[in-house]
Amino acid sequence: MDRTIVELKVVKLKTSLKTLSLYGLQSYHNGIETTGTYRIMETSEKDKLLKQILWDYNVPVEEIESVLKGKRKLAGHYNREMLFLKIIESYSWFTVIQLFTPNEIHHLLTPQLISKLRSPSLRRKYEFVRNRLQEIIRVAG
Asked: Which one of 20, 80, 102, 124 is separated from 88 by 20 to 30 angstroms, measured CA to CA?
């Protein structure tokens, strides 16, 4: 049986300018451990990814970002939940953790949202992530 288990690790680095959060993943695939550290996404790359999820609509990336940050209700006809759903269905986990903090993912990744995922394997993956984030955030908080 092919099994992949992913653990979220959060590392905070303090710089003279600001505190940066880097997210690393520890992945166990069929008993083999692989570890990665992932960079923070540059604004231009983030804008490109956000624009790609609504490629067929003329919605400014600033509106998409405002909805995702909770400062605005809609970008076009998409609310925050709908945008997050499109993102997790369109991009890899490694991209998702560069776009959102663990707390944001924990808040947005509700059982209702997970049930809307089209792929059963993606539903299982994000149910695992949701449960793991609940454990991590409860311990850290």
From this structure: 20
